[in-house]
Amino acid sequence: MRDELTQYLATPGKKVSLKNYSTTYKGPIEKDAGKEELREIKCELSSYQETLYAANSNSVLIIFQAMDAAGKDSAIQHVMSGLNPQGCQVYSFKTPTSEEYEHDFLWRHYKALPERGRLGIHNRSHYENVLVCKVHPEYILNEKIPEYRDEKKIDGKFWKKRYESIRNFEQHLHENGTIIIKIFLHVSKDKQKERFLERINNPVKNWKFSSSDITERELWPQYMKAYEDAITETSTEQSPWFIVPADKKWYARLVISKILADTLDQLKLKFPVLEKDEQQKLDEIKEQLLNN
Q1: Number of domains in the chain
Q2: Which UniProt keywords apply (predicted)?
Q3: Radius of gyration of the chain from Cα atoms?
Q4: Dist CA 154 CA 137 (whole Å)
Q5: Can you state the angle between helices 31-55 and 249-266, rounded to 10 degrees?
Q6: Range of the domain at 53
Q7: If exposure means fewest CB atoms within 10 Å of the residue's CB, which of 161, 171, 186, 227 is most exposed?
């Protein structure tokens, strides 16, 4: 891993305190230079993606989690804009449907996993089940888990088992070739307020705002605690969390692109080499084409 990226890494086994991670940090680079570097990295990502597809041995899953207005949608749009859409799958998870509630909480996420050779992006993810559901434990009742039909029973033991389920799920994916990159876009409450006001004041962006956003904003301390717990419990050597400063969108996009490029580079993927007889067939076909 590039040395500059380790500062965003949530060290596996170490308790996370978000107050120790800046939301405003932008490093020594200026905005224009950062945008130019992002354009260069996009070219790298395009090449890496082509190799990922050709090798057909691994898939890559990028998980984005954040508070509202942290910039998930725009980060996905900008960082992934240089990739081939045929090799990408993007899912934005909303409130579970009635069908999804008839299955375990991981079911709908398992169905949305990227195939080998592809890059998948989950805008929100299975982590909602230990984030929003931890702030609103009454939502768990919709899952109709036999042992937890009463909200009062949803205790520390329940959350410990749920974190364990997530770790096991991700370990299983890793062992079967899926590389997981988990991004928490760390935005400040003040910056969220600024972006909410921008959405309200700009008619073109009104659709992005919901009155429920304010309701959830009032629960900011509870959400920060839920994120700290989730990241602490599920940042592992195989599937670590990156806590990316998100008050400056251009810098967050640059960091995300570097994390993705670094991860793909570490895979050391190569284009498949044809067997000798297959190569001989190609030579024969080439000769036919040249003579006709």
Answers
A1: 1
A2: Kinase, Transferase
A3: 21
A4: 7
A5: 30
A6: 3-291
A7: 161
